[in-house]
Design goal:
heterodimer; A: about 450 residues; alpha+beta; seven-stranded antiparallel beta sheet; globular; B: about 500 residues; six-stranded antiparallel beta sheet; five-stranded parallel beta sheet; 18 helices; about 25% strand
Chain lengths: ~450, ~500
């Protein structure tokens, strides 16, 4: 579930803009979606050539590594990914293009391979068809479901597409009379000073060229498959996805959690950062005070994304030092965002006990993850998923909690506020949207 | 009765149509640079004539009007006003609907307009500063770039009305993008200086105004100098492209209705805006000692600091906004014109149909920045399909050639209007017939599908509500129009006081 961004200037003096500065801050804002690999492509102000830069590092380090080179350009796309060597896809001919992609199209192979096939197909169609909008529309109709992408061509076109069910997000913003910016999340638009204009619709393609922006919506049914995990965990709390504010969803999740299973406690504590809005509204709903339970050390690292177990545990231990004064001799309701393997949570509960917590009741703001994601979000092999293998009571026993429960699937749907037929709940149910449902 | 119109865009096509529908059955004559096929047809049908020629040449328009012996002249665009076409007609004792050169200054000089507004204390002001060179502008921007809030977040404009060109908005609120914005500002003031060299009729070159945010709207009014009669509010969309992205244009499409107000504005905002336009008309008449006969419009924005605020003034109907109001105007336009000429507008009641109206412009690629690219393409329009779709076609920047071909002239090609119960329904109606307009040589066209759409209306309403809460709060607290700032090392400063002192000097 990488974060992608495109930067496109218009009008008098458009060559004066430096896209790389905007991508730097925009991609930094998207880093919650992945930081193992950073990749940007820029069209040079003078030569009009596309240059591509990819490094297995987070954004800040990426730019430090690049600083010796000349990285300037007035049009650009960028991507941050949770997997190493997962940079922008480049196709040389017949039409040279680079592509930033989120999710995974329904082509054969792994994510990178599937996007390569899509990019090659787009390159061919661009050469065959007069209108890039026709090429983009055809790619959308051929590539199945589960992807968003931003492609930059040698002809200075920026082509932005979302699959027909809208699984992966893509949002648009504007700066003054000059800039168009496209991003996985609206928060990245805020960070670079853009005004959020709204989402690209499911099945829609938008083509930027130096003289116009044109868009085409495919005639589709009202079936959508917006990724529910975006609302629970992936997206930033300050983003809007599909016109729905993430923060409001997370507040409702906390309320639903409070309604679903009763528990007594002295203090509500949220696991930073994602679960904090859950904890705040849970506390309000139950009239149990909320406290700051942990202090973080070091850079913000999203623990579920770390590649190895060691790094994950280290990430958690560094990140979450319990605040003794907040928990000592208290009955705690601990709210977390999601549970994948369960080992980080086990550690957290243990740490709370050591600092004097009397009871620890764990509530999780998402349903049990029981299945993989066919759209590129990295989920461990299914035999490692604790929610698939064990019941809630068993999990409580293993992680050493006094009680443990997930948010129900219906509760999640209620919190998001969209009907089920508009969501992809695949990682919670094992049932996935398919391309047969497109029309 | 004989009427002569001036100008050859879609606005003038709409004016010609409305005049031709009058109960006086006037013969319609027209002067314009481009042989607009729509106006041409109306002239022919009414027994009048289209005369190709300079709309901005007072001698030419004056002598033509005299030769034809017309009852009055209706000037469409702003440039003939700036060039003194109405003044020439007045000298010839030919009645004219059109702001004379003196009063049209409120549009021609954005700098003079702002000075006048501050001098007469008309509400809805913006902080501003004018410059005679790029160097001077840049020095000031640089000096205060990290201190005076309003000079960090600015609109950079040519000081003269220049067909909606050259306006840039630079918000420098992210310290980490400061260098980038600063560099862009300096490049743009340089560009403005060069651009303004083309206009010798004004001393100020560059206008820097505080940047504001909020929903924009246009309030167009008829005036005879004594009475100002408001028409329904219209919202134009200035950004060239979808999602409110891209270069400032003359307007890519406009919405109005279903009543006098837009769905996201209130009647009290309408009234306040009308008072502002009235005050500006009195101010410019008082300042110049000249009578204002014609159309005046406030291109306005609801802002946090001032509530209804003037962005610019128009000395004519807006284009495309003219199409919206003329479509629903129930009065005979000729009657309105005669009342303006005789200065008895106070006895006229304007009436409008309650309809939602959407207008969308279709432009050749290249508009607005590379008009050479946009010009010279053969145009094909399936007029029957547009009519069958319940839409109305207005020809804009097109010229009918001797051989019968229609060729694009570089600006917006045509404008399509639809009305319905709601704005999204009218918008959808237009979308169905957009493909009826094409360029025969395959050159690309663009328009904005989002104008009048449910999504865009929702966003506008949300924006208006956010601003309204803020300015209402200021009204309550009595801080409307107040700005305070802090210059480290200097102390607390009042930018309004600074500006007023500057004006007195």
């Amino acid at each position: 579930m990488p974060g992608i961004m495109g930067f496109y200037p218009f009008g008098e003096g458009r060559e004066n803009w430096d896209a790389s500065r905007f991508l730097y801050y925009g991609l930094t804002a998207l880093q919650g979606r992945g930081e193992a690999c950073t990749s940007i492509a820029l069209i040079d102000n003078e030569s009009k050539q596309i240059s591509v830069h990819t490094k297995n590092s987070h954004v800040e380090e990426f730019y430090k590594l690049l600083s010796g080179n000349k990285v300037r350009g007035y049009i650009g796309v960028g991507q941050v990914s949770p997997s190493e060597d997962d940079g922008l896809v480049e196709v040389e001919s017949p039409t040279r293009l680079v592509l930033a992609g989120d999710g995974k199209p329904s082509y054969e192979g792994e994510r990178g391979e599937a996007f390569r096939r899509l990019a090659e197909r787009l390159s061919t169609l661009l050469a065959e068809k007069n209108d890039p909008l026709d090429a983009a529309a055809q790619v959308i109709s051929e590539a199945g479901v589960g992807f968003s992408f931003i492609a930059l061509t040698e002809n200075e076109e920026m082509i932005c597409c979302r699959d027909p069910l809208g699984v992966k997000p893509l949002e648009v913003g504007a700066v003054g009379f000059d800039l168009g910016i496209v991003s996985s999340e609206s928060a990245a638009l805020d960070v670079v000073g853009a005004t959020h204009s709204g989402p690209i619709q499911a099945g829609e393609c938008v083509v930027f060229d130096p003289l116009s922006i044109r868009r085409r919506k495919q005639g589709i049914s009202n079936r959508r498959a917006y990724c529910a995990f975006e609302y629970v965990y992936l997206a930033r709390a300050d983003s809007y996805i599909n016109d729905i504010p993430i923060y409001a969803v997370r507040e409702r999740i906390g309320e639903v959690l409070a309604e679903e299973k009763d528990v007594e406690g002295d203090v509500v504590i949220g696991v930073p950062e994602t679960a904090l809005p859950f904890a705040l509204s849970y506390s309000r709903k139950k009239s149990i005070p909320v406290k700051l339970g942990f202090m973080r050390t070091g850079r913000h690292v999203r623990s579920a994304l770390k590649p190895t177990q060691f790094e994950r545990l280290m990430g958690v231990q560094l990140k979450l030092n319990p605040i003794k004064a907040a928990i000592d001799s208290k009955d705690i309701v601990l709210i977390d965002d999601s549970v994948v393997r369960g080992n980080t949570l086990k550690n957290t509960v243990l740490n709370l006990r050591r600092r004097g917590a009397k009871r620890v009741h764990v509530r999780v703001g998402s349903p049990a993850i029981i299945s993989h994601c066919p759209f590129g979000t990295e989920v461990p092999p299914i035999d490692e998923l604790i929610g698939r293998a064990l019941s809630e009571d068993e999990i409580a026993e293993i992680i050493g909690a006094d009680s443990f429960s997930y948010l129900s699937i219906d509760g999640l749907v209620k919190a998001i506020g969209l009907p089920k037929h508009m969501l992809c709940l695949g990682c919670f149910t094992g049932e996935y949207p398919s391309k047969e449902e497109v029309r | 009765m004989k009427i002569l119109g001036v100008g050859s865009g879609a606005r003038e096509h709409a004016i010609a149509k409305k005049l031709s529908e009058s109960r006086y059955n006037p013969k319609i004559y027209w002067v314009g640079e481009n042989r607009n096929p729509g106006i041409l047809r109306i002239c022919e049908r009414s027994g009048g004539e289209f005369i190709q020629g300079s709309a901005t040449d007072p001698e030419f328009v004056g002598s033509t009007a005299k030769r034809l012996g017309v009852d009055f002249v209706f000037v469409g665009p702003e440039e003939p006003n700036f060039h003194g076409v109405p003044d020439r007609l007045e000298a010839l004792k030919i009645p004219c609907i059109g702001a004379n050169r003196s009063v049209a200054l409120i549009e021609m000089s954005k700098a003079e307009m702002r000075r006048l507004q501050w001098e007469y204390d008309v509400p809805g002001k913006l902080l501003f500063q004018t410059f005679k060179s790029a160097e001077e502008a840049y020095a000031t921007l640089q000096r205060y770039s990290e201190t005076l809030t309003w000079l960090q977040n600015v609109a950079l404009k040519p000081a003269r009305q220049a067909g909606g060109k050259g306006v840039k908005v630079v918000e420098d609120r992210q310290i980490y993008l400061h260098e980038e914005k600063q560099r862009f500002k300096s490049k743009h003031v340089g560009w403005l200086e060069g651009y303004m060299r083309g206009y010798g009729d004004i001393e100020d070159k560059i206008l820097v105004e505080e940047n504001v945010w909020g929903p924009e709207y246009t309030l167009q009014c008829f005036t005879d100098g004594k009475t100002v009669l408001g028409m329904p509010m219209v919202q134009d969309n200035k950004n060239a492209h979808e999602f409110d992205i891209g270069t400032e244009t003359g307007g890519m499409g406009s919405i109005s209705g279903p009543d006098m107000c837009l769905p996201f504005l209130t009647m009290s905002e309408y009234e306040a805006s009308l008072r502002i336009v009235e005050k500006m008309v009195s101010a410019i008449q008082d300042k110049t000692g000249k009578r204002y006969h014609g159309v005046v419009a406030g291109q306005m924005m609801l802002t946090e600091v001032e509530g209804p605020t003037i962005i610019e003034m128009y000395s004519r109907l807006g284009d495309p906004e003219a199409l919206n109001v003329l479509h629903t105007l129930k009065n005979d336009l000729v009657d309105v014109c005669l009342a303006i000429i005789d200065e008895r507008l106070s006895g006229v009641r304007l009436e409008f149909e309650n309809k939602a109206v959407v207008v969308k412009a279709i432009a050749p690629k290249g508009y607005p920045d590379n008009r050479r690219l946009a010009a010279g393409h053969p145009v094909e329009v399936d007029e029957a399909r547009i009519a069958e779709g319940g839409c109305e076609l207005f020809w804009a920047s097109c010229s009918l050639q001797e051989d019968g071909r229609i060729v694009s002239a570089g600006s917006r090609l045509v404008e399509i209007l639809a009305s319905d119960e709601t704005l999204p329904e009218a918008s959808a109606r237009i979308e169905k017939v957009i493909s009826a307009v094409r360029l025969a040589d395959g050159w690309g066209l663009f328009h904005r599908s989002d104008i009048g759409s449910e999504e865009l209306l929702k966003r506008r309403a949300e924006l208006a509500e956010r601003v309204r809460r803020l300015y209402h709060y200021r009204l309550e607290k009595g801080t409307i129009g107040k700005r305070v700032d802090w210059l480290p090392g200097v102390g607390k400063v009042d930018p309004v006081k600074m500006l007023k002192e500057g004006l007195r000097r």
